[in-house]
Write a structure and sequence with these properties.
By secondary structure, this protein is α+β, with helices and mostly antiparallel strands. Helix content is about 25%, strand content about 25%. It contains 14 helices and 13 strands. It has helices spanning about 5-10, 20-35, 40, 75-80, 90-95, 100-105, 215-220, 270-275, 310-315, 345-350, 350-360, 365-375, 375-380, 385-390, and strands at about 50, 145-155, 170-180, 185-190, 205-210, 225-230, 235, 240-255, 255-265, 280-290, 300, 320, 335-340. The strands form three sheets. An eight-stranded antiparallel beta barrel has the order 2-3-4-5-13-10-9-8, surrounded by four helices. β3 (about 170-180) and β4 (about 185-190) form a beta hairpin. The radius of gyration is 20 Å and the shape is globular. The N and C termini lie far apart (about 55 Å).
Length: about 400
């Protein structure tokens, strides 16, 4: 008998046959579908994302979720307003993690039932830790799940040579380069083309677009892209702009995990960083979606991540889990949820947060070093936003 899981895997693997080289596949996907992802200009939509425009204005959204504004990545944001409706505790847990409320610490994505119901009254699983009950002394997080360098990029919309405002941006990326031996580099797309606002605990849908053994392979796909359309001929998408670099960690905190970073370059956020929601330092609740859990209505990525059975088993039937295993991020199309939590790493996360700050301060970047790290001249990437804070 063919199991449900086997059938699901067979469907998801349908168009991957023959693409055995993950690096080549990553570049091919970004050069093909990502260049066309802003289909408003080319006359066709992103083939990797489900259209959710019909959801605009369809009933109230959850706190912290702004109404869809018709932006190219609005379908990513709509996913947050619909698919995670039953996972309200996920946002609530990240929002209150630094407040030390033990009653909220049970309300993590892992306590969502396999059918989507809220299990916040259930007993906390083994191994979870509650935050300190003191509002003055933060509870120290555990050792980092993962640490490394993070690079922030944005790409202009099709046909634009210059970016003047957020509406001119096609996509916003995080490029993660873990420092742990054997780890893979990842390119992550953030919905709404900026980081979620920390002040009102916004939560944005995101996904892993490409994975490679080294960041250089991913960077090759971030230069100028050209593609043909039947109605408008050749279309050109400008090269990505580097908006900053910094140190990052994924930390276990309370009953969940947080993605935290501290900027190294620029040393103070400028106009470009404010446009992209990049603070000097920031902490975000980070959850991973079960690829075998369908959305109702079906929005988000049409083709789901194809995880090994061992990683699928980590979900234990839950719709969302914390990112305690960084290998969950090593597969394309893995769906994520970022929830704004805090602008003060040490105050929220104790010594683990302070360590990220110290690493960044000790390794403050400079423009020439950044150019070398991201092969800016070779690929044609602009670094002015990271160097001066200017929007270009």
């Amino acid at each position: 008998m063919v199991t449900t899981r086997a059938r699901a895997k067979r469907v998801r693997k349908g168009d991957d046959t023959g693409q055995s080289d993950p690096a080549a596949k990553a570049i091919a996907e970004r050069s093909g579908s990502s260049a066309n992802s802003e289909g408003n200009d080319a006359g066709s939509g992103d083939q990797g994302l489900a259209k959710a425009s019909s959801l605009d204005g369809a009933g109230p959204q959850h706190p912290g979720i702004p109404p869809a504004g018709g932006s190219p990545d609005a379908d990513l944001q709509e996913k947050v307003g619909t698919d995670v409706a039953s996972e309200e505790p996920a946002a609530k847990q990240a929002k209150t993690s630094h407040q030390g409320d033990a009653s909220e610490s049970r309300s993590s994505p892992e306590h969502t039932s396999p059918t989507g119901g809220d299990q916040s009254q259930a007993e906390s699983p083994k191994g979870t830790t509650n935050n300190s009950s003191s509002g003055d002394v933060p509870a120290d997080s555990k050792d980092p799940v993962e640490s490394g360098k993070v690079f922030f990029f944005y790409r202009p919309r099709v046909g634009l040579d210059h970016v003047g405002k957020l509406e001119d941006v096609q996509r916003f990326y995080l490029l993660l380069e873990p420092s742990q031996p054997g780890s893979k580099s990842r390119l992550i797309v953030i919905g709404k083309k900026r980081l979620p606002a920390i002040s009102n605990h916004e939560r944005y849908f995101a996904f892993v677009e490409a994975v490679a053994e080294d960041k250089g392979t991913l960077l090759q796909g971030m230069g100028v892209q050209r593609y043909q359309t039947t109605t408008m001929g050749e279309r050109v998408v400008g090269a990505c702009r580097a908006a900053g670099e910094g140190a990052y960690s994924i930390l276990e905190h309370g009953s969940g995990t947080n993605f935290v970073y501290r900027l190294e370059l620029p040393t103070e956020p400028g106009e470009a960083q404010r446009m992209c929601g990049i603070e000097l330092e920031g902490s975000f609740g980070l959850s991973v979606k079960n690829p075998n859990k369908t959305s109702t209505p079906a929005v988000g990525l049409k083709e789901k991540a194809d995880l090994p059975e061992a990683l699928e088993d980590e979900f234990q039937g839950y719709a969302w889990i914390a990112a305690r295993d960084p290998k969950l991020l090593d597969y394309e199309r893995v769906e994520l949820l970022f929830v704004g939590a805090s602008k003060d790493l040490a105050a929220e996360l104790g010594s683990a947060g302070a360590q990220v700050v110290e690493v960044a301060k000790a390794d403050e970047g400079n423009p020439e070093e950044l150019k070398r790290e991201i092969h800016a001249e070779e690929i044609g990437l602009q670094i002015e936003p990271a160097e001066t804070g200017a929007v270009v």
